[in-house]
Amino acid sequence: MLMSGPAKPLLAADSDRERTNRPPWVDGDRMREDFEALARIGSTPEGGIGRPTFSDAHFAARTWFLARAEAAGLDTRVDAAGNHSAVLPTRRRDARVLVLGSHLDSVPGGGRYDGTLGVVAALHVLLAFKQAGTDLPFALEAIDFTDEEGTLVGLLGSEAFVGTLTVKSLQTPRGGRDALMAGLRRAGLREERLLDARRDPRSLAGYLELHIEQGPRLEREGVQIGVVTTIVGSRSFRIVLRGRGGHAGTMPMDARRDAAVAAARVILRAQEIVISDFPSAVITVGDVRLEPGAFNVVPGVARLALEFRSQDDGELDAIESAVLARIRAEAEAHGIGLEVIPVARWQPSRLDPGVCDAIERSAVGLGLTTKRLPSGAGHDAQSFAPVTPTGMIFVPSVGGVSHDPREYTAWGDVVNGLNVLIGTVDELARAD
Ligand SMILES: [Zn+2]
């Protein structure tokens, strides 16, 4: 049982806490009820979750979160970017806020743990400190950020919160401009007010996020807690290839400028370049649309969604110039018109070494094994890293599966993650 937690989770009452001088560790049963209540909202027949941003299920999950926080006696708020918060105030005057966040939106056909785990855990950290009556030097704010997954924009809520969301990024959003406008209308949000969600970085004491690893490394190595050191950066582009459409029966092969064939070349060349020249990076064409799209018509247009990721900003530059140059050369050589539309750029983020140490101390204090590792997936934490001390805790994903209904983390590992999060808050409180 490599993944089992500390032998006996501790439930420290007020007096207990004073005597042992330990954080209010919890057993996680109450959290499990909440986690499962959320897993029922937007549940799919496959056992996963479908809660794309501003879908009915997403609204229902967010409403559930606020109601649960209010019922527990926490303050709640919703900001101009639709971020939903539960707040545990501190008695200290002019105190800063330690933000604990993640997201309740999901990819279509996603899993139960991605994002949801971090929001429920954040809520239960507030409840644990509230119940223990601990006088922390900062307020705690548990946040469900808007549109982390990028149904519309990606990291929309957390970037608005830290002030890096730009008017420009709203012009060519990942999900398309029409979807963004329709979504904002449904949510009762106004585009021109999204940037008002910004908080002064000086008001922040730091940022912590608990998340599933979404990869296989912790499980493979039998490690219980991942301490995230960096979050990869990524760049994405829409690539439009224009050839010449025609009759699939009468147009001779040597007269064709087939957009589908051009798309196939682009996909293969891009992959070859990254595999041979940038072995630690990844590149993906995640969507291909052919027009008009029929058995008997040579495709005239192909639209591709291209994305690549690396831990190093210089490497992202190098991949961008190598891949785009190759795509241009291929298009030119085959008489294909080319349009390259930049969609999103996320810088790689280095998380705070001091917070990494605090996470590690917290885990080791609970008798848990740890490993430092980078995150290949994007997270709200990357929005915070440039403006406030930021840390991220990973718990193992069985089989490394994520963005899939089979996403699973053993409950003992979830409870370990929750207790490490509580312990890290305690560590930061001592250092404050
Ligand atoms: Zn996530």
Describe the model.
- The protein has two domains: 14-232 and 348-431, Zn peptidases (Aminopeptidase, 3-Layer(aba) Sandwich); 233-346, Alpha-Beta Plaits, CATH 3.30.70.360.
- 35% of the residues lie in helices and 22% in strands.
- Mean pLDDT is 93; it is low at 1-20.
- With 432 residues, the chain is α/β, with parallel strands linked by helices.
- The chain has helices at 14-20, 29-39, 56-71, 116-132, 156-162, 177-187, 217-221, 259-277, 313-333, 353-365, 381-384, 411-431; strands at residues 75-78, 84-88, 97-102, 139-144, 204-212, 225-231, 233-242, 246-247, 282-291, 297-298, 301-310, 337-346, 349-350, 370-375, 390-395.
- Helix 8 (259-277) packs antiparallel against helix 9 (313-333).
- Helix 4 links the parallel strand 3 and strand 4.
- Strands 1, 2, 3, 4, 5, 6, 13, 14 and 15 form a nine-stranded mixed sheet that branches.
- The two termini are 37 Å apart.
- The site of zinc ion (ZN) has 6 residues, from loops.
End-to-end separation: 37 Å
Task: Give the ordered list of helices and strands.
Answer: HHHEEEHEHHEHEEEHEEEHEEHEHEH
- Rounded Rg: 23 Å
CATH superfamily of the largest domain: Zn peptidases
Outline: elongated
At the first level of CATH, what is the class of the largest domain?
Alpha Beta
| CATH fold annotation of the largest domain | Aminopeptidase
Q: Average pLDDT, to the nearest integer?
A: 93
Structural class: alpha/beta
Q: What is the makeup of the main sheet?
A: 9 strands, mixed
